[in-house]
Design goal:
Layout (H helix, E strand, L loop, with lengths): L5 H10 L5 E3 H11 L10 H11 L3 E4 L12 E4 L19
Antiparallel strand pairs: 1-3, 2-3
């Protein structure tokens, strides 16, 4: 498994993209290119990506088509990421419940 969190990996691939926004499919493809872990038989990690995109407030959904805001081809971008980072650049952990 990669040594960084899903949040950090997703944020990195989005921020390093030319337009600073990617669709879910593009995010998945980029993660597969960068980390060999994602090329194995285990496919459950894709659900983890979706989970992180929808739960972390630093990820913002940008509708590709205003008439289809719930489509699967929406873009995702990163907003206000600085407030989620520790001084060393790592992501803050969520508080335990």
């Amino acid at each position: 498994k990669p040594p960084v969190s899903y949040t950090a990996m997703i944020a990195a691939v989005i921020q390093e993209s030319p337009e600073k926004k990617l669709t879910l499919l593009q995010i998945v493809d980029e993660l597969k290119k960068r980390y060999s872990f994602f090329n194995g038989d285990y496919k459950g990690w894709k659900n983890s990506v979706r989970h992180n995109l929808s739960l972390n407030k630093c990820f913002v959904k940008v509708p590709r088509d205003a008439d289809r805001p719930f489509g699967k081809d929406n873009f995702w971008t990163v907003d206000g990421i600085e407030s989620y980072l520790n001084p060393d650049g790592t992501f803050r952990q969520r508080r335990k419940r």
